Amino acid sequence: MSTPSRRKLLIDTDAGVDDAQAILMALKSPDVDVIGITCVAGNADAMQVGKNVLRVLQVVNRLDIPVYIGCNEPLLGDKKETSDYHGSDGFGDVPDPEAPDDSLLESEHAVNALMRLSKKHEGELSLVCLAPLTNIAMAIRMDPGIGSRLKHCYIMGGNHHGKGNMTVAAEFNFYFDPEAAYVVLNQLKAHITIVTWETCMEHSIPWEFYSNIRDKGGDVCNFLSKIEKKSCEYAKKQKWATFMPADEYLIACVLRPDVIKTCCDVYATVEVKGHYTWGQMVVDWQKVLKRPNNVCVVTDINQDVFEGMLADLFINKDTHRRT
Fold this sequence. Notes:
The protein has twelve helices and twelve strands. The chain has about 325 residues and is of the alpha/beta class. Strands 3-2-1-4-5-6-12-9 form an eight-stranded mixed beta sheet, with helices on both faces. The relative contact order is 0.16.
């Protein structure tokens, strides 16, 4: 159960390997209640995402947290190919013979859960989006007032310099469902903070630091090391000079505002018609469109604080707070 003095988070995820560490960081936080986790297609199919989330929760004995399966197709049904970075199952194709049973997944659809929980915790609930925004866009379509009930919405996705990681101009989460991202940015009507792909790239961490924190031992560390092995091999084959987390930066901003060094309130939308720029987040830096600001874009991260949070995940490594 949650308590009034603790912050309430609802996490929407497509449960790739970076989502796993981000979720674990949230569960480790002493002043946060994760009241539910909603799943959407992205790094894997929605049902597989749900199975992945159960595996994460099992590692820290938190299978009491409800997990909801959501949309398995983008809004317009144009499902995209994904890279092999996370493996075909999102978790590096590492089998788990002791994985939790699927029966632990909730029968309620994730979109219905989003609407219901926003009403139950009106004004208290922060939505943390680590994935394509299909579930959130569907919730807006079914319940246009959902944004007014949220305390905050945090999004990892998009780009503010037009640099893509799936196309020349589009970041993966927005690329996977550009129309959903367009709906959320333009219609959610909540305070939105975005950590973009470029911000993640500009604050990647040295491989030496990554190796040091993965050598700590314990259930959490061993779990992450296993599911990240394929991703790390992929990164090194591509000659990436550093390890590049993504969702971890967003959850760090949620948990510790002092992680954010600089941010900008701007109007941003998503290109849904361009041939080369489809899925790109377009930021009106010069206020040419003369529209009110709708997002806060995080542009600089306090690297010391962030790296400290990653290391802290493995202090008292097998104890995550149960509420």
